[in-house]
Amino acid sequence: MRTKTTTGVTHYHIQKKRRAEFIEEWRKHRRTVVRRDDVALRPTARGMRSGVYMGWDGDSPTRCLDALVHELDAGGVTTVHRHSWDAQLFIVEGSGWSEIDGTRYEWKPWDAIHLPAWSWHRHGNDGKKTARFMSYSSEPMLWTLGMSLLEDRGHEEVRNLPPRPAFSDGPEGDDPYARRLRRLAQEARKRRSGRIHTPYDEQELLATPRGTRTKFLVDRAIGSQASGITQVMIQFAPGKTQSLHRHPGEAWLYVVEGFGHSFLGTAPDRGQHYRWKKGDLIVVDHFLWHQHFNDDPQREARLVRVHMFDSILETMRALTDPLVLFEEAEDTLLSMQEISQIEWPDDQRPES
Fold first, then answer.
1. Count of H-run helices and E-run strands, the chain
2. Looking at residues 273-300, what average pLDDT do you find?
C-alpha cells in the first residue's frame, strides 16, 4: 500500500515560521559580558569542578564554539575520555599536566594545550594548590551536524584503549575516489601531527598598529592543527586602547589580568560600553564594531582572544566574496612612532 507524506502547510510558511522562531530563541541567550562571579562550578564525574561561560550545558546555547572553566584540586586526576571534536585549554593558574594519547605535557599559568579530535586525554595536578583552566571547543558546530560523540573510560590505562579512528590510504590513479582517499589521508596525518603544547615563554609579545602587543597561543602560524579555533594573548599598556574594527563570526575574550571596558555597536558611533574585569568573558557578536580599553592608568591588561578564523571566518569569506569581511577605522591605528613611544611593562607571567 502506497502512502503519501505531507506537511499540510506550504514550504513557504514552514520556513518563514522556523526562521523567525530560531532567531527569536537565539536572541534570548545573547550575552555581552559573562561575569566570573555568575559562573557556577559544580563537581563532575570526571573528578574536577566545571562551569559554563557559554554553551548548551550552561543554558547559553551557541552554534560554533563553547567556553567552560575547570578547577582541579591538588593531587587530583581526571578520568580519561575522548570526543569527536577538538578542544583547547588556557591555563589560568596552578600547575599540572595533561596526558594526551599516552604522552604527558607539563603546564603552568598562561600555557595553552590543544586536544585533537579523538585523542584520549586526562589531566592531573601534582602541585600544592588548585589548578584552574579555561577550555574552548568546536562541539556546538559538530552538534549542529549530528557528529558530536564522547566516550569516557574512567581511570583505564591508555595502552588498553582503542586508537583513534583508522583511515585508508588512496591508491594510484586520478579518479575522484582515489583522489578523495589520498586527500583525506593527507589531511588526517596533518591534523594528528600538529603542535599540542605552547609554553607561554616560548615566544615574545610583538607590538601591533592596533596599540597592543600580541602572541599566538594556538594557531596554524605556530604549527597548531586545530579545527579553526585560534587563541591569541593580547596585552594592553596602562591606559591604552585597541583600534576600532569589526568582522563576521564571534570573538570571545577572556580577561586574564586588569579591568576595562569595551565598546560594541552596529556603527562606529552607535553602540554601548560594557565594563569587564579579571575572570570575565567578553562576547563580541557577529559583525559588530568593537574596541577594547584598558581603564587602569598604572597597570597592563591582558585578554586571550578566541575565535574560529580558520574555519567559520574563512568559509564565510569564500561564500560572500567579494564582500569586505574585515573593516577597521584607520584613524584609530597607531603609527610606528606612536608604537615606539609606548612604555610596555615587563612580560612576566605569575608563579604557578
1. 5, 24
2. 95
